[in-house]
Amino acid sequence: MIAKLKQLFLQDSKQQDPATLQYKLNLAAASLLVEVIYADEDFDQAEAAILPELLHQTLQIEQQEAASLIEAAKQARHDSTSLFEFTAEINDQFDLEQKKQLILAMWRVAYADGQLCQFEDQIIRRTADLFYLKHSEIMQMRNRAMKAS
Where does the record locate the signal sequence feature (predicted)? Predict the structure, then answer.
């Protein structure tokens, strides 16, 4: 499993078929969302419960696919050494609006338990920086997530 995940991340996206590339992008996005859940070193059930819905909304995937993607994302997150592993491919393939929607989903995960941990905030801000988002865009997404929770 680990070797397969590493192979997915190491392959050149230009040589991949569209289905493999889409899976890789979905896995990277799901891994970033899982990273927020684990940011405070506690797997919060309220945060985990919202994850399949957010994957469905953000990535337009079905519930069954979301469940298997979450498991793969947990493993990918465990095996990763930095956020860059996930953000590099997303930067290449997502447009600005898709990046903002992913950051919004990350904020929604962070606020799902009713409180924002400083580590969750740091993960989201670092990810947004790696996406080259403006501070105003980050705050706009954060405010939308706060209103939704």
Answer: none
